[in-house]
From TrEMBL:
Protein name: Zinc finger PHD-type domain-containing protein
One of the GO BP terms on file: positive regulation of DNA-templated transcription
Keyword Coiled coil set for record: yes
Stored Gene3D superfamilies: Zinc/RING finger domain, C3HC4 (zinc finger) (3.30.40.10)
Keyword Metal-binding attributed: yes
GO MF annotation: an example: zinc ion binding
UniProt-annotated location(s): Nucleus
Region of interest called Disordered, as start-end residue ranges on this chain: 1-53
Domain Zinc finger PHD-type: 77-123
One Pfam family here: PHD
Length: 408
């Protein structure tokens, strides 16, 4: 029978094998050769033994150094480095290598219960963990459950309940994770009467304990919980508060970056108007020159060395803008000659903090705004994912506590 330990009801998968009595691994994809009978499929799956990191490291070194093909140019698979002779095989989602079920200690009966599979080498390298689909509750059925059900099909659900009722009538304990009695079944039937809709709704919502309901209304009311549950809820609340502060910082950073982009546009337009409008007045005699000048515009880099955004200060201060205008005017002045090239690097920085090099010429800071903004968006998304994970952990803690109370 399946166990419900380590079952994640929120994402529909689990990291532990469907049956603790056997050592199993998932196989989302399987490969068989119908022309050759499977001689090992009738053998019992060996019990998994704990392997140390050193053991796996030695096996991995041997595995990677082994040949990929035999003398007949047949492709070799698995840690045993044998060709496909008809045994059930599973492909690793991490390294995409094929492994025999027997070599990986996988029970072939559970081949349909795979969500994803990572071999022991990929697990050892931290590339991922195998995930299982939940098994149908009917004994000896190894199919995954259907969406919104505990059974693979309606027929198996009915068969399971018939078996439970039959066992109860004979006074036997039904093969279920829940304890049922004839009195309980009778109470349910009397409650629903002839109302099928009432029967359908029965059990659709988890019956929350009063202490849990009060906690959800007021997160500070945790005194009625046991010490271990109280400590876990407090730790989750502290982590949640830290994430909330981090999210606020990232949102503030994104707002600042958006405002910075507007300030950049404002400064470029004002610098362009101040510099090239003067040049046009001084060069009225040449229409061609005037046409060329009118096409010029200022487009500076504005990347800051520090986290403080100097751009806003310049946009808000007439004095700082005048200093910047003076520096840029000098650069674009027609009287400036090539002898000043030695000071060009010094003129690329304003107040030793802000890069004022031409944007197209500044390779070092190319695309800096997009990079900062994308990083902020990515980090904000990661923080929100962590927040959702904490919410799931909190719900799981409350649910486990309620189930513990009910079962006691």
């Amino acid at each position: 029978m399946t166990t419900h330990e380590n079952w994640d009801e929120f994402n529909g998968s689990r990291t532990e094998s469907p049956d603790h009595s056997e050592s199993l691994s998932p196989s989302k994809r399987k490969k068989t050769s119908p022309s050759v009978p499977n001689k090992k499929s009738k053998q019992e799956t060996p019990i998994n033994t704990e392997e140390t990191n050193e053991d796996i490291a030695r096996q991995y070194k041997k595995f990677t150094n082994a040949p990929k093909y035999d003398y007949n140019s047949e492709e070799l698979f698995c840690v045993c480095r044998k060709p496909d002779l008809g045994e059930m095989m599973v492909a690793c989602d991490g390294c995409e290598e094929w492994f025999h079920f027997g070599c990986m200690k996988v029970n072939p009966n559970y081949s349909d219960l795979i969500a994803s599979y990572y071999c022991k080498f990929c697990v050892w390298k931290g590339l991922g963990e195998s995930k299982w689909k939940r098994k149908c509750r009917l004994e000896n059925c190894y199919k995954p459950i259907a969406p919104g059900s505990k059974y693979c099909s309606k027929e198996h659900g009915l068969k399971f309940m018939r078996n439970v009722w039959s066992d109860l009538r004979r006074g036997e304990t039904p093969p279920s994770s829940q304890e049922l009695s004839t009195g309980l079944v009778k109470a349910v039937l009397e409650y629903v009467s002839d109302d099928y809709t009432k029967l359908e709704r029965l059990g659709s919502h988890f019956p929350e304990l009063k202490v849990v309901e009060e906690y959800k209304k007021d997160p500070n009311s945790i005194n009625d919980f046991p010490d271990d549950v109280k400590e876990e809820l407090q730790n989750l609340k502290q982590e949640s508060n830290k994430l909330v502060e981090e999210i606020k910082k990232q949102e503030k950073l994104m707002e600042t970056l958006v405002a910075t982009k507007e300030h950049i546009k404002y400064l470029n337009e004002n610098l362009t108007g101040a510099i090239f409008s003067d040049s046009k007045q001084e060069n009225q005699t040449s229409k061609k020159k005037k046409s060329n000048k009118s096409k010029k515009k200022i487009d500076l880099c504005y990347c800051s060395k520090s986290d403080s955004f100097l751009i806003k200060e310049i946009a808000d201060s007439d004095d700082l803008f005048a200093d910047l205008l003076k520096t840029i005017k000098k650069r674009y002045s027609e009287e400036e000659d090539d002898e000043d090239d030695d000071d060009e690097e010094d003129n690329d920085w304003f107040m030793e903090n802000l890069c004022i090099k031409d944007k197209k010429k500044c390779v070092r800071h190319n695309g800096w705004w997009n990079l900062y903004y994308d990083e902020a968006v990515t980090k904000l998304a990661q923080l929100k994912v962590k927040t959702d994970e904490l919410s799931v952990k909190k719900e799981s803690t409350l649910r486990n506590y309620s189930m513990k109370v009910y079962e006691s």
